[in-house]
Please model this.
Amino acid sequence: TFQGIVNSIEGIPNHLIINERKILLDDDVEVMDHKEKEKSLSDIKNGKWIYVVSEEKSSGLTALRIYLLPGKVKDSEKHKYPFMVKEEDKD
Model:
């Protein structure tokens, strides 16, 4: 799990560039806002902060769930976002 800025949503099909890392999008990737309301891939925009739950697969780092954030979330603010606490407890 990590958060970062979307650098590119174009150019490579089924991928995002986040913090200059290429992330493959799982076929069943879930996209939600910071209130855990369902969103779509089209809601992901360049320059926006996102939180990614990923898994290393044979094809590379793959996003399973993406949360749209209002901005960078500091460690001291994570308790305001229950999904972050839940996802990081799984690690």
Notes: The longest helix spans residues 82-90.
